[in-house]
Amino acid sequence: MSGHGSYEGRGVTRPYTEVEIACDESGSDGENLTGGNTDVFAHASVDVPMESAAAAIREIRDRIRSPAEEYKANHLLREKHRAVLEWLLAPSGPLHGHAYVHLTEKTFFMVERVLDLLLGDPAGALPLCRAGADAFGAGRWKEFLAAANALLRVRGDTDGAPGAPVDAFFRAVDALAQQAPDLRDPEAADVLRLLGGARSRAADHRARLLAAPALIPVLNPLLPAIVRTAAYWSADGRTVLLVHDRQNMLTDERIEWLKDTTRIGGLRLVVARDDTRVQLADFLAGIARSIASNELNGRGDTTLTALLRPYVNAGSVWGDERSRGRLFGAAHN
Questions:
Q1: Looking at the whole model, is its pTM more than 0.85?
Q2: I want to staple 41 with a disulfide (CB 3.0 to 4.6 A). Which of 17, 104, 192, 292 is the partner?
Q3: CATH class of 18-103+219-328
Q4: Which domain of life is it from (predicted)?
């Protein structure tokens, strides 16, 4: 075992009940879900032999012919390379039937987390996000999201006052609650009423974080995505061995937690450019994040969304109802 919780995999004959899956992500801003650079997090995984992955990478290079030493998803997303992107995702391409993407709409994920922590039930996230900026006003909604982010993240005490994130959060809740009489959805109003009575839970959460930062940060979408990925690839009873691009979030302790929580036999961290399978996962994650973000913001491309749809897990964390049908359709369960 390596220092990153890896398994002794090189040169070892594995039983047929094990499968090695290569993974990478796109859109990671850590616990910063409201002020980061992206509104979607994508985690991609591929089940492709090393030789086939290398052949696909060579094909991409031959078609694009960029002098760049390392190719990224952005190369494929350029309009002049549209044909290469469509080839990669197409049913006749190298990934179809051998790859999977878990998507996370960051705002919805965060609202689910805060409701689960404070109310013990994340179900209210859907009506609350459905109301969103349209019902509450863009300014109030943005302040609520930023306050929820600060409340849940480990480094939430930006001004040094221990109770500051709690006070800011409930000021934001009160500001939304002022709009409750005008809400068309009574469920959203009920959620705000319940949140208004959860101050003690919020204070307890902050106290716990300050005393001992959590092993599993509640706001980082990477670990839940890996859990879902492992469940998908192990659904037929096989034990999954994950090969993942290096990520600071994946410490020894968290890898051990994943091994205890999911059906994975090990997780080996690599540099993406050293493993062509991880490079393919990197391409797919970046492509999926871009296509999904465009759909979320009303800029969807019908052709690309249709090509992505077979790869997307229907259990992804996605609350936006306007884009959900286009992105997921009859995707994997």
A1: yes
A2: 104
A3: alpha beta
A4: Bacteria
